[in-house]
Amino acid sequence: MAFLKLILLIFTLHSFMPTPISSNPSLNKEVLARIRPDFLEFAKKPVIMDWMIGIRRKIHENPELGYEEFETSKLIRAELDLMGILYKYPIAGTGIVGYIGTGKPPFVALRADMDALAMEELVEWEHKSKVPGKMHACGHDAHVAMLLGAAKMLQEHRNDLQGTIVLIFQPAEEGGGGAKQMLDAGALDNVDAIFTLHVSTRHPIGVVASRSGPLLAATSFFEAVITGKGGHAALPQHTVDPILAAANVIVSLQHLVSREADPLDSQVVSVGKFQGGGAFNVIPDSVTIGGTFRAFSKESFVQLKHRIEEVITKQASVQRSNAKVTFDEKSTYPVLFNNKELHEHFRQVAGEMLGIQNVVQAELEMGGEDFAFFSEAIPGLFFFLGMKNETQGPPQSGHSPYYIVNEDVFPYGAALHASLATSYLSENPAKDTSAPEGSSHDEL
Ligand SMILES: [Zn+2]
Ligand SMILES: [Zn+2]
Description:
With 444 residues, the protein is of the alpha/beta class. The chain has helices spanning 2-16, 25-44, 46-61, 70-83, 140-156, 178-184, 242-260, 298-318, 340-354, 371-377, 410-427, and strands at residues 86-91, 95-101, 107-113, 164-170, 193-204, 208-210, 213-216, 218-227, 231-232, 267-275, 282-283, 286-295, 322-327, 336-338, 359-361, 380-388. The chain folds into two domains: 22-216 and 335-427, 3-Layer(aba) Sandwich (Aminopeptidase), CATH 3.40.630; 218-331, Alpha-Beta Plaits, CATH 3.30.70.360. It contains eleven helices and 16 strands. The protein has an eight-stranded mixed beta sheet with strand order 1-2-4-3-5-16-6-15, with helices on both faces. Strands 10-12-8-13 form a four-stranded antiparallel beta sheet, with helices on one face. A hairpin with a 3-residue loop joins strand 1 and strand 2 (95-101). Keywords: Hydrolase, Manganese, Metal-binding, Signal.
């Protein structure tokens, strides 16, 4: 049934996609020069701003966790329907892939994530989360609103596009690896490049930051259950104390980065979870510890993983305990790597819109992002979109219960999305546009 729907969609896309007005790149550049400066002005129009803000606030009030973004996805599809944008759904559960343009190569993708976090919002405002224990504290509600804003502009110019812009609305960025699921479901098949943005409270409005090469670290989580033999705390000789074993394990884990890693090769091992025991005078049977590890190269990451397992099991055995280590594969993200050419493209496009002094070099960060799966599969570019607002008090980092999105940033995000994609199509024309209809395997 899903296959039939896909066939129908492919047919529909072919039937109704406007034909390209020209395959001449120079004419295309002229068209682009005409439409691109309008994007920021268009996105700043009160009617567009209010529409984007309305969408974001609706999503903010009803935050949904990874793979449960049912209402968010429904809202996005309703907006795409209203704009007349065709899409595939469902992809990876709640994910959506929309198409604007000719339905033919080149294909360039823009991505927004949809999920919220399992935490309580502590910001008191009119559109505070209505769902206890869930909050959009990373700005993914804003990402959706801005990508829909871009979609509106791009759809207005669909007849000017020389190729196809692919809109990716993905589930479960926060530890669920939604990008990987989208990728496995074929969301990026035949796509040549992908761009995304993340709102940032560290940079002011009108400033964007990125860098070529690695930007965010490869990340993963581990958990270990260390088992001994519980008993009376006054008679330790009759027990095997897993608390002492776990304490030694944690100290030994800290030596991996300080003693084994190259000091110039950034790595992190942090234990954030220690659960065991419940009484002052009882030695428990077992202790559970858990943590995260991060690195900037695949080799270092693999080595860390190997040594974490080895250190936990062997160190536990020194204290006569057993240890079972598990790694959360779903939350294991590769290094986020920005393509050099796309970074140059981003600098040029953002520089034109914001002034090159407002396109700054991002610092390397040990945080992770599942966009890394996309940019590992095809050339990709991730950038931070400044939204710092001094009047809203000291900026709160992502995942803070006091996190506030500065909605004034929306026109910038929408316009940058639209500009990056249109100019990419203009500068990377399809290699052979003379192929007869239906003969190219690259088509949708
Ligand atoms: Zn986040
Ligand atoms: Zn995020």
